Description:
Shape: elongated
Mean pLDDT: 85
Oligomer: single chain
CATH superfamily of the largest domain: Jelly Rolls
CATH architecture of the largest domain: Sandwich
CATH class of the largest domain: Mainly Beta
Number of helices: 10
Number of strands: 10
Number of domains: 2
Largest sheet: 6 strands, antiparallel
Distance between the termini: 46 Å
Amino acid sequence: xxxxxxxxxxxxxxxxxxxxxxxxxxxxxxxxxxxxxxxxxxxxxxxxxxxxxxxxxxxxxxxxxxxxxxxxxxxxxxxxxxxxxxxxxxxxxxxxxxxxxxxxxxxxxxxxxxxxxxxxxxxxxxxxxxxxxxxxxxxxxxxxxxxxxxxxxxxxxxxxxxxxxxxxxxxxxxxxxxxxxxxxxxxxxxxxxxxxxxxxxxxxxxxxxxxxxxxxxxxxxxxxxxxxxxxxxxxxxxxxxxxxxxxxxxxxxxxxxxxxxxxxxxxxxxxxxxxxxxx
Length: 279
C-alpha cells in the first residue's frame, strides 16, 4: 500500500513510511537493493523460503525478521510447497548531521544495514493492528498508524539489542502500550463480537493474564469493559432512533430481552424509556 502520509521522529531522525504491504510470496523476487536513505522491514509470520544477501543464503521460517538497508542486494526465494507470507514496511530516513549520536535510540537501527534473526518482541501484534487501521480507516487512523509504526521500529531495535532493557525515551512506547491500544480498539470497534479468548490471542497473553492486565490498567473485568463498551454504543444507536431489536442484534446480544435487562441494570432505566425521553 503506497501513497501514505505517515511520518514520525525519534530524537532528530525523521522516518517517512513509503509503503506497507502484506503478501504471499509465491515467486522469486529478483536481486535488488534500496536507495541511500531507504530501509525495508521484512517479517515472516508463516511459510518458508530463503533470502540471498551478498551471495550468502539465509533460511527463512515462521517468525523470521530481517531488515535490508541502503545498498544491500537481496533476493527472496519462496518454498514452493509452503510459500512464505510477509509483512513489509519501507522507510525513508532523514537526519541533519552526518553521524547519529550513539546515545540516540535509533543509532543501532541505522548502524545495521542488514540484520537477520528471530523476532522476540511479538511484532505480529503491531502488524495486525496496523492493517486493522488501514482496513477500517476510522477517524484519526493516521495518528494511530504513526504511533504504531514508531512502536514497531522501537521493538525492532530491541530485537537488535537482544535485551530486555529499553532506551530512556521509550516508556510510553512499551509492549504494554501496544497491548493497551489493541484492547481499547477491541472494545471501541469489536464490542459486539469480542470475547476474552479472542482478545487474549490478539495481545499474546493467556486469558488469566489478560484479565489481570484489564484489572491493573482499567480497574475492571473483561465482562465489565465489554458491557461498558456496548452500553456506550447503545446510547448512540438509541439517539439515532434505531429499533431496540436491531440495537440488540448490532451489540451482539442473544435476545432483545437480554439487551433490555443489561441496559436497565447499567443505566437504571429501560432502553424503551430512554428512547421516549429522546423523543
